[in-house]
């Protein structure tokens, strides 16, 4: 391994870890050159197992023998004291290890839909913790893929990766630019929202369709009317005790279980 001791928190080699925002790491103009930061050895290991390419590692020295050597990295491993790491990252690096990784090339929506039967659609879901939680529920509860509108949080931001426990690397995902793509691939669109024509998620009408897309909307605002108008069904989770709705991540787990278990 190429282990490099860092004594200067302004070292240029550490630019991805401290000087670039999430948007700059994404590199929207040249996404093929984009990278992202992966945190915690468990999440990093899942990423590597699914073929993602590391650029470098950053960790406390004590984690080299306990964590890094197991991975046999062929890229630079930067190490520093806890204090210098805090100066570099801006927070206490309690999980021990960071890894800069190259962004994977995403499939097209048509490619994902052609091999899927049950998918989740995230429409303007901007909270990274909710995004990560939804991916984790999707992986655990039988959802084949996740598609996101361009107004969503990037699933590869550090917090989303961590909260997902690495499932953002397991569940196929990409961006959806038009709901017509779902219709062209013969998906029944089930939009989750409270409305006068909402049906219960246990309604048998929802379970008679071979391919379906479950649409989850923004925290607070929910799904806009133009999305609801394109849905084949508008569905809701029955509530008790005067509670009107669940957090979108919690709601995703409930609806994934109810609708995916039939397949």
What does this structure look like?
With 263 residues, the chain is α/β, with parallel strands linked by helices. It is 32% helix and 21% strand. The protein contains eleven helices and twelve strands. The chain has helices at 15-18, 22-26, 41-49, 62-71, 82-89, 109-114, 128-140, 158-163, 180-184, 225-228, 248-260; strands at residues 2-5, 35-39, 54-60, 76-80, 97-102, 118-122, 145-148, 173-175, 188-192, 199-200, 212-216, 233-236. The protein has a seven-stranded parallel sheet with strand order 8-7-6-11-9-12-10. Strands 1-4-3-5-2 form a five-stranded mixed sheet. Strand 7, helix 8 (158-163) and strand 8 (173-175) form a beta-alpha-beta unit. Helix 7 (128-140) packs parallel to helix 11 (248-260). It is elongated. It starts with a strand and ends with a helix.
């Amino acid at each position: 391994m190429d282990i490099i001791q860092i004594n200067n928190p302004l070292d240029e080699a550490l630019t991805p870890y401290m000087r670039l925002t999430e948007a700059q790491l994404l590199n929207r103009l040249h996404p093929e050159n984009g990278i992202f930061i992966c945190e915690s050895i468990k999440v990093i290991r899942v990423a590597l197992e699914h073929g993602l390419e590391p650029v470098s590692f950053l960790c406390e020295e004590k984690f080299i023998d306990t964590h890094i050597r197991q991975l046999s990295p062929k890229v630079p491993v930067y190490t520093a004291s806890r204090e210098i790491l805090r100066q570099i990252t801006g927070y206490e690096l309690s999980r021990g290890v960071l890894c800069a990784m190259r962004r994977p090339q995403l499939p097209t929506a048509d490619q994902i839909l052609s091999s899927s039967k049950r998918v989740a659609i995230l429409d303007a879901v901007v909270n990274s913790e909710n995004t990560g939680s939804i991916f984790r529920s999707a992986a655990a509860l039988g959802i084949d893929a996740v598609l996101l509108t361009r107004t969503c949080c990037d699933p590869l931001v550090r917090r989303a990766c961590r909260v997902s426990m690495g499932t953002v690397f397991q569940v196929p995902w990409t961006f959806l630019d038009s709901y017509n793509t779902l219709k062209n691939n013969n998906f029944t669109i089930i939009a989750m929202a409270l409305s006068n024509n909402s049906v219960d998620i246990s309604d048998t009408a929802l379970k008679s369709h071979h391919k379906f897309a479950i649409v989850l909307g923004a925290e607070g605002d929910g799904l806009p009317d133009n999305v609801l108008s394109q849905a084949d069904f508008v569905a809701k989770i029955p509530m008790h005790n005067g509670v009107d709705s669940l957090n979108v991540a919690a709601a995703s787990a409930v609806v994934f279980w109810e609708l995916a278990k039939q397949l």
